[in-house]
Design a protein that fits this description.
The chain is an alpha/beta fold. It has 19 helices and 15 strands. Strand 6 and strand 7 form a beta hairpin. A 5-stranded mixed β-sheet has the order 4-3-5-14-8. A 4-stranded mixed β-sheet has the order 10-11-9-12.
Length: 417
């Protein structure tokens, strides 16, 4: 789905041998280097459109500058077409060396035999323990590793400091406090909180966060936790704390509402940090961890680097993937992408840990949730059904109970199929 700042849309192969490669410890990389010096081309498929394309191509160019004889051929495919194109490429015997995939789809492609089992390579590398646990789990299927996390993102609470100060309130610590604070900050054509509840996958994110915080599960929405979570959103819209416009807002629209001070708070990701810092310098804002209920939760957004089963140069592809894990590379690349490091050792560096904005996202990552197993494989359908329940309840087409009962049946059907 396009954004005005940056943001998105075979047989099983077991561990590939490390033929023609040696482990290096120079420059602290621990990367693999090819023993031969013959020219090599690495094909690289991704869906980073808009403002995300240039930073990716710049970091790939840096690799080529440091590795004479290596040519990387990136191919941009629209997010909405990416999975279908990769599946069609597998059927036609035309796959890239590297596919940069949505983390939640890693299981699907592993199960389909489209990407290689990298367990032996990852074990020999020895750096997997540095990943945030929830992030690393997205690269696993059937106990084996099928990718390396590329970057991550999550959601936090954005607060307008001026509006908060004038109202004499502080960032809410619980979801109950969030509702009260949002009501206090609403009025005069301003809403206390902005979220995205647009049709489709994106619009399910805020509700999933609220559901998880209430102690619920994505596979059990028709529960006490699921009903309480959705009822709170309905009540906030009906009470004027959230605009009914959320049913049509993508996350870009949410950011616009916040930047124009038509919303005092928003739930959004790191995708907008550079926009607010560079384009809206006079707006006073800060970040807070998402409120707690039974627990604290956020939604993980991530991508994984994978080597396909049709790769012509898997060793060269692996070398590039490891080079992209280096702190000096990530510290330059990630801020331009408005994204977070997937590696704890990188996240602990002053550039991230001491920054008042990035550090909040880093801390929030400890409570990040991502689908795994059958939920990951069917996440697109499940999230869409969940969002339809949000639409139905907030619009008044159904009661909360009716909407979630229907969605529960749909989710059960997907998982049973």
């Amino acid at each position: 789905m396009g954004k005005m700042f940056t943001r998105r849309d075979a047989l099983k192969t077991t561990g590939a041998a490390l033929t023609g490669t040696v482990l290096l410890g120079t420059a602290g990389r621990g990367a693999l280097a090819r023993q031969d010096t013959e020219p090599v081309t690495i094909t690289f498929w991704h869906y980073y459109g808009g403002g995300a394309t240039a930073p990716l191509e710049a970091v790939l160019q840096r690799y080529m500058d440091e590795h004479p004889g290596v040519t990387i051929e990136p191919r941009l495919i629209n997010f909405s077409d990416f999975n279908r194109t990769l599946l069609q490429g597998a059927a036609a015997g035309d796959l890239p060396d590297i596919a940069l995939v949505n983390a939640f789809d890693t299981t699907l492609f592993a199960e389909s035999g489209i990407i290689q089992d990298l367990t032996e390579r990852v074990t020999a590398w020895g750096g997997a323990s540095e990943y945030f646990p929830g992030v690393y789990e997205t690269s696993l299927w059937d106990g084996q590793n099928y990718g390396l996390p590329h970057l991550v993102d999550c959601y936090v609470l954005w607060c307008n400091d001026t509006i908060f100060s004038e109202a004499g309130v502080t960032p809410p610590a619980t979801w109950e406090e969030l509702a009260t604070t949002a009501a206090t900050l609403s009025g005069d054509n301003r809403f206390g909180l902005a979220i995205s509840a647009v049709e489709g996958i994106e619009g399910a994110t805020a509700y999933i966060i609220r559901l998880l915080a209430a102690g619920g599960e994505v596979t059990d929405v028709d529960s006490e936790a699921g009903q309480a979570a959705l009822q709170q959103f309905v009540d906030m819209v009906e009470g004027g704390s959230m605009s009914p416009g959320i049913l049509g807002w993508i996350e870009d629209d949410v950011a616009t509402q916040f930047s124009t001070e038509q919303a005092a708070m928003m739930i959004n990701s790191a995708s907008y940090v550079n926009f607010f810092r560079r384009e809206v310098p006079d707006l006073a804002w800060s970040l807070a961890l998402l409120p707690e209920d039974v627990e604290r939760a956020t939604f993980l957004s991530a991508e994984n680097l994978t080597i396909t089963t049709g790769a012509q140069n898997p060793d060269a592809a692996w070398d590039l993937m490891l080079w992209l894990q280096q702190p000096e590379v990530l510290n330059e690349y990630l801020p331009e992408r408005n994204k977070l490091p997937a590696l704890r050792n990188v996240a602990a560096e002053p550039q991230w840990a001491d920054d008042p904005v990035w550090s909040v996202f880093i801390e929030q990552l400890d409570s990040a949730w991502a689908p795994t197993g059958d939920v990951a494989t069917n996440s697109a359908e499940i999230f869409t059904y969940i969002q339809e329940a949000v639409q139905a309840a907030i619009s008044g087409d159904s009661t909360v109970e009716e909407a979630l009962a229907e969605t529960q049946g749909q989710i059960d059907g997907v998982l049973a199929g």
